[in-house]
Amino acid sequence: MNIGMLLPFIVLIGAMFLMTRSAKKKQQAAAQMREHLTPGTGVRTIGGMYATVKEIGDDTLTLEVAPGVHAIYAKNSIGAVLEDSEYNRIVHGITDEPVGDAPVVPDDASSLTAGETDEPAKTDLSKDRDEAPKLDLGKKDEPKGDEPQDGKTDGEAGAK
User: Fold this and answer.
1) Most exposed: 60, 74, 117, 121, by fewest CB within 10 Å?
2) How many CB atoms lie within 10 A of CB 59?
3) Residue 80 and residue 34: Cα distance in Å, rounded?
4) What SS3 state is found at 12?
5) CA angle 117, 121, 124 (to 5 degrees)
6) What CA–CA distance (Å, rounded) separates 81 from 90?
7) At residue 149, what are phi and psi to the nearest 5 degrees?
8) Any idea which architecture 9-98 has in CATH?
9) What pTM was computed for the model?
10) 26 in helix, strand or coil?
11) Of 110 and 87, which is predicted with more confidence?
């Protein structure tokens, strides 16, 4: 037999072995993560929902998805176990940083300008709207009376 013909098959078998080995490692890591769950731990489900573990069963977990709202999930639906600081930052917006070090976010769009002038931005647009010329959109002023312009009344086929 020619070794050149067997080489692609050997490479394919080796690649399959490596892929299954890495998949098994991921499965073992996920199973180990689920085994170390404790009540009160913050988790993220594989669907992306954040919750707190309340009770742990054999194959299921009771998660608190909102204050006082409990739902039962399969253990294998847990995508990640979160550290307390990460869970609080994501769910509650609580950070461990002191407030003085946090960046200041303005309430308006004044910081979007490059600071050309020191004058405050003009926010009252109603004055500009009144002074602007009216645009002609091709509409003609329609008569304001109850009678149609062609003299017809509702339900008539022809003119009067």
Assistant:
1) 117
2) 7
3) 9
4) helix
5) 150
6) 13
7) -70, -30
8) Roll (2.30)
9) 0.46
10) helix
11) 87
